[in-house]
Specification:
Elements (H helix, E strand, L loop, with lengths): L7 H47 L1
């Protein structure tokens, strides 16, 4: 068997950390978009409700 180089112990955790950071950024962006979409849906429903009662 071959001995692992010392860079292995730096590279692997660095890549895992990078993956966590990228996942955090993409996940927060998706959550923010989903929240904005839900608010927009609620506003449209509220407009339809008030418009239906006034007519």
């Amino acid at each position: 068997m071959f001995a692992m180089p010392s860079t292995h112990f730096i590279f692997i955790p660095a890549m895992l950390l990078l993956g966590v950071v990228i996942g955090w950024v993409l996940g927060s962006r998706a959550a923010r978009d989903a929240f904005a979409m839900e608010l927009k849906r609620r506003e449209e429903r509220a407009k339809r409700k008030t418009g239906a009662h006034e007519a």
